[in-house]
């Protein structure tokens, strides 16, 4: 069973879009509750996890821009050998994908000391409705370009790593 745990609303919108458009390496049928979950920890999922076959492999994909905290598996520790945890990082912020998609990455780099990615898309691209933007734009090329431009910790995956080829 695959669990997609997303950190924020923006990640939730984009992962939902990618899943609904069959752009991820897994399908909604493979995912718990058939959708990404806006959760950082498992606390509220323990009752559902407890109903699953004990030997069933559990894959947790944690998707967000700050993944400093560890996933607490204390209450399902007995299943530890069947658990895998993947960190999918979207740092510095998800809005950087919009900047890349709009071909404004070089311009943004000139202004990084002035504005955050979130402020840049509002101020310079006049985009305030992120969900609307995500719903109307396929960001897969921007996701792949982000992987080319950025370096993550070795223990973190890129969003591009869970996209279909």
Quick overview of this protein structure:
This protein is of the alpha/beta class and 165 residues long. Strand 1, helix 1 and strand 2 form a beta-alpha-beta unit.
Q: Any overview of this molecule?
A:
A five-stranded parallel sheet has the order 2-1-3-4-5. The relative contact order is 0.17. Helix 3 (95-101) packs across helix 5 (117-123). It is α/β, with parallel strands linked by helices and 165 residues long. The chain has helices spanning 9-20, 46-51, 95-101, 105-110, 117-123, 130-136, 140-149, and strands at 2-6, 37-38, 58-64, 83-89, 156-158. Helix 1 links the parallel strand 1 and strand 2 (37-38). The chain contains seven helices and five strands.
Overall 3D shape: elongated
Beta-strand proportion: 5-15%
Oligomeric nature of the chains:
single chain
| Count of beta strands | 5
Read across the widest sheet, the strand sequence of neighbours is 2-1-3-4-5
Helix share bin = 25-40%
Q: Look at the helices and sheets and give the structural class.
A: alpha/beta
- Nearest-integer average pLDDT: 90
Give short descriptive properties of this protein:
165 residues; 33% helix; alpha/beta; 5-stranded parallel sheet
């Amino acid at each position: 069973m695959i669990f997609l745990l997303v950190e924020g609303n923006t990640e939730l919108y984009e992962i939902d879009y990618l899943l609904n458009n069959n752009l991820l390496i897994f399908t909604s049928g493979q995912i718990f509750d058939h959708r990404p979950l806006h959760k950082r920890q498992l606390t509220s999922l323990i009752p559902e996890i407890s109903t699953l076959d004990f030997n069933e492999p559990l894959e947790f994909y944690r998707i967000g821009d700050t993944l400093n905290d560890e996933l607490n598996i204390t209450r399902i520790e007995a299943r530890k050998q069947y658990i895998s945890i993947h960190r999918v990082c979207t740092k510095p912020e998800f809005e950087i994908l919009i900047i890349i998609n709009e071909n404004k990455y070089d311009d943004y780099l000139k202004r990084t000391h002035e504005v955050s990615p979130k402020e840049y898309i509002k101020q310079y691209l006049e985009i305030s409705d992120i969900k609307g933007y995500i719903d109307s734009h396929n960001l897969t090329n921007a996701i792949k370009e982000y992987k080319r431009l950025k370096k993550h910790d070795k223990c973190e995956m890129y969003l591009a790593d869970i996209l279909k080829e």
